[in-house]
Amino acid sequence: MSEFTVSTDRDYGYRASNSIAGTRxxxxxxxxxxxxxxxxxxLADDLLIKNQVDFEAYxxxxxxxxxxxxxxxxxxxxxxxxxxxxxxxxxxxxxGVREYDPIDTQGLARVEVVKGPAAPLYGLAxxxxxxxxxxxxxxxxxxxxxxxxxxxxxxxxxxxxxMNVQGNLGTGKAxxxxxGAYEKSEDERAHSEGYIRLNVVDLAWQPFADxxxxxxxxxxxxxxxxxxxxxxxxxxxxxxxxxxxxxIQILRPNIPWTWNWANSQNKDTLxxxxxxxxxxxxxxxxxxxxxxxxxxxxFEVPGNGWDANGSGGANAWESSSGPSGRYLAxxxxxxxxxxxxxxTYHYRDWGNSMHAYGATAVYKLDLDFVKNTFAFGANxxxxxxxxxxxxxxxxNASAQVYPVRADIPITVPVFPPTDLVPESxxxxxxxxxxxxxxxxxxxxxxxxxxxxxxxLKTNVGVNRTKMKLLGWNSGTSTSPDxxxxxxxxxxxxxVVYAIxxxxxxxxxxxxxxxxxxxxxxxxxxxxPQVGKSWEAGVKVDLADGKLSGTVSAYQxxxxxxxxxxxxxDNLTTQRWDSLTPEQRAVDSQxxxxxxxxxxxxxxxxxxxxxxxxxxxxxxxxxxxxxxxASYAYVNHEFTESAVAxxxxxxxxxxxxxxxxxxxxYSFTDGPLKNFMVGVGVAGGxxxxxxxxxxxxxxxxxxxxxxxxxxLFGGYKMKLYGYNTFIQLNIKNLTQTPDYxxxxxxxxxxxxxxxxxxxxxxxxxxxxxxxxx
Length: 772
Prior knowledge:
Elements: E1 18-19, E2 27-28, E3 36-40, H1 41-47, E4 62-64, E5 82-84, E6 87-88, E7 92-94, E8 97-99, E9 108-115, H2 119-122, E10 129-135, E11 144-152, E12 157-169, E13 172-185, E14 194-208, E15 211-225, E16 233-234, E17 246-247, H3 248-251, E18 267-283, E19 287-301, E20 306-307, E21 333-335, E22 340-345, E23 347-348, E24 350-366, E25 370-390, H4 395-398, E26 400-403, E27 432-451, E28 456-472, E29 482-498, E30 503-514, E31 529-542, E32 547-559, E33 562-565, H5 571-578, H6 581-586, E34 601-604, E35 607-622, E36 625-640, E37 657-666, E38 675-684, E39 687-694, E40 697-703, E41 707-719, E42 722-731, E43 738-740, E44 756-758, E45 763-771
Parallel strand pairs: 7-10
Antiparallel strand pairs: 1-2, 3-9, 4-5, 5-6, 7-8, 9-10, 11-12, 11-45, 12-13, 13-14, 14-15, 15-18, 16-17, 18-19, 19-24, 20-22, 21-22, 22-26, 23-25, 24-25, 25-27, 27-28, 28-29, 29-30, 30-31, 31-32, 32-35, 33-34, 35-36, 36-37, 37-38, 38-41, 39-40, 41-42, 42-45, 43-44
């Protein structure tokens, strides 16, 4: 059953020889005309990586711009701040199916990163690439168990278990595997206690030699308080026009950086559940078939409705005065006039119910002059998304107000206010409601061929994707407010040529496709985002596999989608033009205003381009010594735009040069036998934060480059006949700072470009493991 499965048994340490993400079938990475990097389970265990988002540190082409520098309990990947080869990316794949949320590594066997557009393989995809998370599965042939307990110096702890039992069942065989995790997360910030819970059950039954049935059930939950990074800043210095903003901790030196107003009642929470059934059938020696069906759901609530940090999704409705315009508005945050913190109730949630099903066939046909592998299939993905929001009729009446003092305990009521906006004014749960039905159907064919005695390998694929989105902004509407439909054929053409048995060159042209459901003020939607890529490079597998990897250069172009034009006419300016000056003078919307006050609308997007090169290598000079290196140069910019000032700009959080190095040495003899030690280093150049208009010019402001260092070491031994180990991890050895605000310059002619440093701690964690 190997065509659809990558066995981790072939992974050794940090080196993986095969991938499924690049072709949808089990294929040697050296034969795939793409840059693919694989993170193995060993790597995740050595670094205590708990979710796939944190692998970003060791893949230089990724930038996790919105990362919480103090915690690795990730509730949700930071929206629009995760960059892949310079392009924004907000979700990945799990076993080839769209996945919105961070995935606990306790349920993963490995993570495969495919760089560049991948629409020919997976339908909808971002232009920068795709991260495909490969789940663990029940295994035949062996019984095993693993227990791990980790404790940290910040009162955090985590326990995990992985147990697999297999045996004969009738004329066939069966296996069951359970993975569980429980964690109490906490960091040096006050009130930071969170949690992670995970339960995964995998079943496998092989009634006949050529038939395999599998089932997966997963239930997960995680939470972490909102408002843990209270870098409230004052814009007082902006009166002089230098864009300074000073954190409250600078203005109030008695307030430490660890102070915040989070509490046990305002946690960001995420609950997930997944069911999947899969059957694989082998027909003769040349044909294999696989079909699956999956249902999953998620429910996310930011801050439990209480939002004290003035940012994020929880208070997205707070600045509005309600759909009918008659409700009082109030903002959470720091009231500088009274020097108090105001916590107001603005509830919002996101619920998603998703289904997916599909089938894939792999057919092998070997001829005298060419060996062929054909993969073809169809997949359907559908989603019902619903978001509710509500707030009190008078937010000020129920707001919690506290003096700005570090010794004041911050609490909020367990129950929300009773005077919520009526259902009749905006939906089933108060004054905000949104509902979408989203579908994505696609058909694909992929042809891999081996020519000239396996010296030349070609990969040709094509995918036809149809997407549809229906959106409702009211719980009482019978017809959707948004209808978006698009379809596209996406090709892939790639070639690998082996110059020698150890060195190959490759080239690939591929495409990406992603919908854009944004509407302008007239209700018009825009064309989908389409990416096109050209990439070429070298693959090496030297010294009997001791040195393997890929070096490649690329150019990716994305067109379509939408963008904001602050000077464009809109529905309001159209109404302005329809009125006489006398009518505008008495109109409540226009009185005392000019036409320019109402300009701005969403328009058709232009073009953005990323050029760069990647180096990803795994080197094992000897069996006990492993080295992983990654480097990326990314030059992303907007090349065509109706807003001329944005041409040449890029996204905030962008970093042009990033690098990472990880090495581990295991002692196999001598007085240090069974010890291992390792070090990881990751860093990059300066990170773009924003663009500001200063003295008639647009100026980019940056955050200094970061370099982080972590150490780990362990010892394996026998304890009462069981394989046991102990491992110490030291993270953030360099105490790389976080940053907040912008320092005042004291002059209106000198722009504020230097940020305040926020200290971060060294983190120690000790793990004890037992294998049986």
